[in-house]
Amino acid sequence: MSLRSNIRALFTLGRGVVKGISELTATDDPLAMCRDWIEDARQAGIFLPERVNLATATKDGIPSARMMLHKGIDDRGFLFYTNYESRKGRELEENPRAALTFHWSVLERQIRVEGTVEKLSQEESVAYFSSRPRGSRIGAWASDQSRAVESRERLEQRFREYDQKYPGESVPLPPFWGGWRLDPQRIEFWQGRLNRLHDRLRYDRKGDGWEISRLNP
Question: Cα angle vertex 70, ends 69, 75, to 5°?
Answer without folding.
Answer: 170
